[in-house]
Amino acid sequence: MKKIIIVMVCIYSLSGFSQTKKDIINSIGLDEVVVSTQRFAKPKRKITQQIESISKKEIEFNNFQSSADVLGNSGTLAVQKSQQGGGSPVIRGFESSRILLLVDGIRMNNLIYRAGHLQNIITVDKNMLENVDVLFGPSSTIHGSDALGGAIYLQTKIAKLLSDTENQKVSGTALTNYNSANQGKSGHLDFNFAGQKWGYLTSFSYNDYGDLKMGKHKNGSNDFFGERPFYVVTKDGIDIKVTNDDKYVQKFSGYKQYDFMQKIIFQQNISTRHSINLQFSTTSNIPRYDRLTDLSSNGKFKSAVWNYGPQKRLISSYKLDKKKVFLNSDMNLVASYQNIEESRITRNFGNPTQSSRIEKVSIFAINSDFKTKIGNGDFIYGADVYYDNLNSLGNKKNILTNAESITDSRYPDGKNNTFRAEGFASYSNDINKTASCNVSARAGYTTLNSEILTNFLNLPYTSVSQKNFTYSGAVGIVNNASENTKIGFNLASAFRVANIDDLAKIFESAAGTLIVPNKDLRPEKSVTADLSITFWEGKRFQFENIFYYTRLYDAIITGSFTLNGQSSIVYEGKNSLILANQNQGKGNISGISSTLRSYITKSFLFYGTFNFTHGRVQNAVGNFPLDHVAPFYGKTGFKYESKLVNLDLYMLYNGKKELSNYSPSGEDNLQYAPKNGMPSWETYNLKGSLSLTEQFTVYSGIENVLDIQYRTFASGINASGRSIYLGGKYNF
Q1: Cβ-count burial 267-295 (b if 16+ within 10 Å, e if not)
Q2: Where in this chain does the record put each TonB-dependent receptor-like beta-barrel domain (predicted)?
Q3: Could you give all domains of the chain from N- to C-terminal order, each with its CATH number?
Q4: What is the Rg, in whole angstroms, of the alpha carbon atoms belonging to the chain?
Q5: What distances in angstroms separate CA 189 from CA 58, 127, 439, 642, one per listed residue?
Q6: In which band, very low, low, confident or very high, does the pLDDT at 460 lie, cut at 50, 70 and 90?
Q7: How far, in Å, CA of 209 to CA of 124, rounded?
Q8: Which end of the chain is more exposed for a tag (fewer CB within 10 A), N or C?
C-alpha cells in the first residue's frame, strides 16, 4: 500500500530545479526558457523533445559532491555507481556509450567509451557548471553517433565582458563545503576580469572525499547488505585480511580530484567574437570498490588491489562566432583538442604480480554550425569532423622483486584510430499561430582501424578494420492547442557506430569471464516515437506527461563466444568463459515520464517526478530483459522561497528490481544485489540556505535523514547514510 501511495503522489509531481521565485517561474513559463542543446538557442515551447534543465543556483543550493550526483538527485534520470568516484547516468534504459556527454558543446564520448558503466562525467566539476541540460530521446541528427538515449549538455561558466556585468570589472565566487558521511571537503574559486573587448575567467576546484559511510538502519523488511566487515592490507608484500573497526564505513572508497579552467573571450566587433577554452581535470587513484569486495569460494578476497589510476582530461578549444558570414548565415566554428588518460591497476590477493593497463586518447575535432532564415523558418546546418587516436599499453610488476615486464593491454597495442565526417541540416517553422514543426537529417562516413602487435591470446586475426555510412532523421510537431495545453509528437532515428571498446577490447568483465574482440560488429540503430501532453495555468502550474516507445535494431550485447574453436581460455591464471560483443536481434523500450509543478502560494511550491521504463531484447535464443533499465523512480517535495531563506524538503525513491528483470548479460551487476533482487527504497532529505548579505550565503542540510541502508540499481557500493553538510558561498 505504501508503494502505491508513493506512485500516486509522484505521478502528480515534478522536478523543481530553481532556487529563486524568478527562476522557477522561468522553468514553468515555456516562452521564457531558452535551451542550447540544439546547437543554436531555441525556445523550449517549440522543441518537441523532452528537456530538463538544472541551473547553477540549484547546483549551489544542493551542495552536490559531483556532477553525477547533480543528475542522480534530479529525479529525472538514474545514476549507477561501482565506486564513490563514479556515476554513470542512465536515460530511458540507455547508458554509457549509448548516451552522449558534451561539455561546452564538445563531445566527451571517444573511441573507448564502453557500453558498461562509465565515470567520465565526474571529470567536469559541479562547481564549474553554469547549467546542465538533459535532452531525452534520440539526438543523433543534431549531435551524431552515440545519442541513442539522449544527450547531457554540461555548460561551464562563461567569461564576461563589461557589457555583461553592469560595469563590474572584477568579480568572482568562492565556494566551500563539508559533508559528514565521507568527511568530504570541497573548495572552489573563480575569478572574472571584464573589459570592453576582453574577458578572462579563471576557475579552480579541489575535492577531497574520504571513505563513504553507508546507512545503519534496515530498509523496511529487507535484510542488511553491503556491510564491510573485513578488508585487505598489504604489509611487506604480504596481503592480510583484517577486521574493519566500523563495518558501515566502506573502506577504500575515498579519492581526490583537482579541476582547472581558463576562458578568454575577445569581442572583435559587433558581429565577431573569439573564445578560448582550456580545461584540465585529474584525480588520485580511485578504488574500484565493488571489485575489492569480491570473495572467492573459500572466503578469501579475490583482489588485493583494483584501482582506476588518475583520470586525466585536458580540453583546449577555439571558437569563432560570426554573424552573416555567407548566405546571410550566422556561424559558430569550433576547433578542439582533447587528451585523456585512463588506467586500471589490479593485483589478485596473495599474488605479487601487479598489472597496469594504460589508455591514452587524443581527439581532434572541427564543428561548424550555421543558422539562417528560409522564409519565416529557421534553417540550421553544418558539419562535424572527428579523429580519435588511442595508445594502449600493458605492463606488470612484481611488488617483491620490482621486476617488470609487458603484459596484454586492454585494447590492441598497435595503431588504433577512428575517423568521422558528418553533415546535418535542421529546419523549423510555424505551421500556423498555434503549431510548429521541426525536420532534421544527418549523414556521414566513419572508419575504424585497429592493429594487434602482441597477440597474447593467439587471435585468428591481427587487425580490425571497418567502414560505415551513417544516417539518421527526425520529424516533430508541437501544437499549443490552447493557452493552457501543449501537445508534441516526435519521431526520430539514431545510431551508434561500434568503437574500439566494442570491437577490440580484452577485458575480464567479471570473475571467470573474459571479453575478447569481435571484428564483425555492425552499428546499432534505433527508432523512437515520443508523445508529450502538457497542461499549465499561467506561471503557477504545469503538468507534463511524455510517453515513448523505442525499437532497437542490431543491438550490441555481450554473449557467449568461441575463440579458435574454444569456449574458455586460461587468463591471468584462471580458466575463464569466453564472451564477445555481438549484434543480437532487436530490442524494444517503452516508458512514461511525468512531472508536475504547482505553486500553492507565491512562496510555496509542490513538485516531483515519476519515471517508468520497460525494456526487452529478442534474439535467436529467446526474449530477455534489456540491461541498464532501472525500476521506476522519481522525486517529490516542497519548496519554500523568500529573499533571505530557501528550504527544500523532498523524497527520492526507487522501486524494486526483481531478479527476473535483471539482464543475463551481467551488465546489471546482479552479483552486487541482495539475494532477492534490489529492494525498493526512499530517502527523506531537508536542505536550506540563508542569505546573510547580498554577497554571502550559507547552505546546510541533512541527507538520508532516517539513515537508511540502500543501494541504487546496478551499483556495487552502498549509498550514503545520514549526512549533515555545511557550505558557504561568497560573491565578490
Answers
A1: beeeeebebebebbbbbbbbbbbbbbbbe
A2: 280-705
A3: 34-251+282-402+413-731 (2.40.170.20)
A4: 25
A5: 18, 9, 43, 27
A6: confident
A7: 16
A8: N
